[in-house]
Amino acid sequence: MRYRTPGGQYWKLFRDMAEQPHLLIAGATGSGKSVVVNGIVSTLLTCCNPSRAGLILIDPKRVELVQYKQLPHTLCYASEPGEFEQALRMAMEICDSRYKNLQARALRKWDGGDVYVVIDELADLITTNKKECQPLIQRISQVGRGAKIHLIVCTQTPVASILSTPIKCNIDARVGLRCRSGQDSRNILGVTGCEKLPRVGKAYYMTPEGINLWNIPYVTDAEINELVRYWTSEACVA
Fold first, then answer.
1. What is the pLDDT of residue 234?
2. Which of 32, 87, 156, 158 can bridge 187 by disulfide, Cβ–Cβ 3.0-4.6 Å?
3. Is residue 2 in some structural domain?
C-alpha cells in the first residue's frame, strides 16, 4: 500500500496514544477531538491488519466515525441509542473471553491483537443511556488493560456527571485541547492551561510520564479515504 504517514515525531505521537491502556480526548466544540481520533485510527490502519487492531465504534452524532463502518477492522458500529449498550457488551464479552483464555494458559496479559472501543461523544451516550452504559464503560476501564481492550473516550463536557470518577481514575492518558475555562482544564489534566490554547492545532498530552505540549497533525480526508479504499478492497479480495 502506498500511503504517506504522518512524519517523524507525529507518527510516534499517534502510535503512543494507541499504545496507552485507555485515552481521554477532551476539549470544546471544534477544538480538534475528531482530528486526534482520525490520526489514531489512520495510524492503526497504516500499520495493523484486522487481526492486530479491531474497532468497536460508538458514534452518537452518526457522522464522525461512519467512514470506518465498512472496514474489515470494524467489529461493531453503533449510531443509535439502542445499539450503544450492545457495542459495549460486545467489548466486555471479548474481554471476558480473553481472560478465560489467559487463565487456561496461566498468562497475565493477552498476547494477540488489540481492540479499540472509540466513543465519539461521551456526553451524548451518558445523556441517552447512562443507566445501561456507564457501568459497562467503568468495567472496561477497570479490567480492559490485560485483555488489550482500549477505551478512547471523547467529550466536550469533562464534568463529573458525564465523566465519573471511577472511569476517570482508570484513564491516566489524556489529550487536553482548547477548553472553555481553567476549571475544565483542571477536570481534564489536573492543571490549568488548556483554556489558553489556540482554538485548533495544539494540545497537551498527558501520560504517566508527564505532560507535554504538541502540535497536532492533521490527516486529510483524502488520506483517510485512501486507507479506507485499500482495506475495503482487501476485504473484498479475501
1. 83
2. 158
3. no
